[in-house]
Amino acid sequence: MNPKQKKMSLTEAISMAVGTMIGASIFTIFGLGAEIAGKNLPGAFVVSGLLALMVAYSYAILGGKIISNAGPISFLIKGIGDNVLTGTLAVLMWLSYVVSISLFLKGFAGYFLPLVHIGITPLSTGIVESALIVLFTAMNTFGSKAVGRLEFAIVAIKLSILLVFIVLGVSSIVPANTVPSFTPEGAKGLFAGAIIFFLSYMGFGLITNASENIENPSRNVPRAIYISILLVIFIYVSVSLVAIGNLSIPTLVKAQDNALAVAAKPFLGSAGFTLLSFGAIFSIASALNATLYGGANIAYSLAKDGELPAIFERKVWFKSTEGLYITAGLGLAFSLLFDIVSIASITSSVYTVIYIFVIVSHYRLAATYGGNKAVILCFMIVLTGVFAGLMAYQFSTNKASFYGTIFTFAGALLLEYIYRIFRKRTFTNGSSSADHM
């Protein structure tokens, strides 16, 4: 078989990223965003999208030159070197995918159970989550081309449903509902919502985590990153305008588990509820599919450098699947143990820290791989402020999330420190990546 036939095209890479991003917010945490940002929800999506583009600047430049399924970890190794900090960030990166998987499992159950008229209980939710993770773990054993084809089909269905929601809902928007609030409280909600919804754009990083499996990665990785983010910004803003234009904020907040399905009722009736519920199911499923694939790729690529335990090192990508199974199993465990708000908040914090250090690495590598150092420094300062704001928000509104984030960081540091002592593992700088200058 021609090796090129096994690789993802530009369209399939974009589909993978879009599938993850849309599933991460529009359906999963949309109600939470409405509660935080209120009428400023569309603006919050715009601001968080701009933050994502700041991070994308470094990802696109480095991702087009350093081709590795370790993605940002390969950037960190080259920019910061092999040390405890890099190892800790590697552990955090892998765990971030594990926790993201749990977020999608919960989101899927939240839409699926009401659709089939089953009550949302710990037992029913657990059964749905378990069945879903088994299904997509099996799907991911078939490799990158199977993942890319599945993503293209799922994203096409999902975008069609959202397009129906947007086109039919625009005519019934109540303009007064969409007027943004310019009060100090409104501004606070806007920026708090933007920080929380930063999570919404995190799927673009999966492109770099699959770069070894993408056709012409030096050209297609940067293009896929920018195109996917811009496309998702348009979708987020359009959908949020229709939602708040047709339904009051209190009603959206009340319907937090399946907010968009409820938002379709005023102009589409019960058929709209069903349609959007199916859209959510497809959307979250595609996000789960893409994230599970990316998480397993990270486990594999890091294992090549000795970062993860020995069981991962026996994994030969697309042949033996221990890394995939453990990633999926831990994702299910997080889903069964934590609520969706805590999962979303902790995930956002972890990703933001990784983004900051990727930008730091880019600053140090700019002379070699390209990029304006003044621009990079500016983005670094902005993202550091975002992280500080996110931690402050957690501390003031949900101390469990705050301490959960601290525990996650401390746990990753401790695991890395212990693992280095007992395994005496060191990264082989750049061994899992190929530079294309």
Could you explain how this protein is built, in words?
The protein is mainly alpha-helical and 437 residues long. It has one domain (7-426): Amino acid/polyamine transporter I (Up-down Bundle). The protein has helices spanning 10-27, 30-37, 41-63, 72-80, 84-115, 122-140, 144-170, 175-178, 184-196, 217-246, 249-254, 259-263, 265-304, 310-313, 322-337, 340-369, 373-397, 399-423, and strands spanning 66-67, 434-435. The protein has a two-stranded antiparallel ribbon. Helix 1 runs parallel beside helix 10, helix 6 (122-140) packs antiparallel against helix 15 (322-337) and helix 7 (144-170) runs antiparallel to helix 13 (265-304). It is globular. The two termini are 29 Å apart. 58% of the residues are buried. Mean pLDDT is 82; it is low at 313-320 and 429-433.
